[in-house]
Amino acid sequence: MYANTYSRMAVIARDKLTGFGEHWGILLPTGYVAHNTDERNTHVVTFEEFAAGKPVKVIREVPPSEHRGTYWRLQAELAAARPYDLLQYNCEIFANTVTGYKPESPQVKGWALLALLALVVRIAA
Known about the structure:
The protein has 125 residues and is an alpha+beta fold. The protein has a single domain, classed as endopeptidase fold (from Nostoc punctiforme) (Alpha-Beta Complex). Helices cover 37% and strands 23% of the residues. The protein has four helices and five strands; from the N terminus they run ββββαβααα. The protein has helices spanning 47-51, 67-80, 91-98, 106-124, and strands at 10-15, 22-27, 32-37, 41-46, 57-61. Strands 4-3-2-1-5 form a five-stranded antiparallel β-sheet. Strand 2 and strand 3 form a beta hairpin. The mean pLDDT is 87. This is LRAT domain-containing protein.
């Protein structure tokens, strides 16, 4: 699949093991994946370990002109050893930050909006 494409760098995702949402990581040209989890924080694993037996899809390619900056930001994140935080530093925020995008988590925003709507409906009822 993607593990044999060694010149490629991309933000990738698979279904979370809990079944709710996606887990994001960064496919490196070496075939390894950088990601962060609540169990191990930011770390690098094999593609197979990241995939965990689930299909993996590409969210977006990292252009070759951005590879160097992505590696620098990845090294800084690994050195900082920031702990995983669902709201402030989750897998989407990590992947977006390292690849030079706005550090945000659309999934968390979506779940927060859904919770807010549920609260409004409950209050209105």
